[in-house]
Amino acid sequence: MTYLTGLALGISAGGKLHQLLKGEGFSLVHALPGRRRYQHDDLLDNKKLAVEWEQHLTRVKGIRTVRVNPTTGSILLEYICQEECIELVMNYLDQLHKMPGPRADYGKLGMNIRSLCRRMNRNIFKNTGYTLDLRTALALIMLVCGGTKIWKLGQRPAGPQMVWWAYSLLKGRY
Fold first, then answer.
1. What domain range is 60 assigned to?
2. 0.70 exceeded by the pTM?
3. Does residue 54 contact residue 38 with C-beta atoms inside 8 Å?
C-alpha cells in the first residue's frame, strides 16, 4: 500500500466513523419540575419528523403539553409523571428514530453493528468519567501505535499512516 492510498483510506475511515458516532440523540437543554426542553439535531428544519414525534408524545399518559419546534430543533414537554418516566420515553423515542424503516438500505447486521458501536461509545464515555469516547480512544491507540512504529522501528509509511488515521478520527471533533 502506498502512502497516498493509506492517506485516502484513513480519511475515508475517519469520515465513516464520524458519521456512525455522530448521532448523539436528545440533549436536555433545560429542566424544571414538570417541564423539560430537549433538542435534537435531526429535528432541525424537519417538519415531517416534528409532526411524527408530536403524535408519539401526545399519546403518552402523564405528558400534558407537547410543543415541537422544527425551526429550533427543540421539544418542550410539560408533564405530571415522574422524571424517570420522561427519560424512558425520550430514550424510547430516540431508539425508535434510529431504527431503519422498512425500505432502509442496510439490514439487520448494519443496525446491530451501529448499535454495538453506540453502546461501546456510551460505555467508554461513562467509564472514563466523561473524558474519552470511542473515537478519541481509537485515535489515541492509533497515535501511540503509529508513533511507536515511526520512532522505535523506523517503519514508513505505516507509522505516519496510523498517525494520519488518528488525525482523521479527531478532525472535526471540536
1. 33-98
2. no
3. no
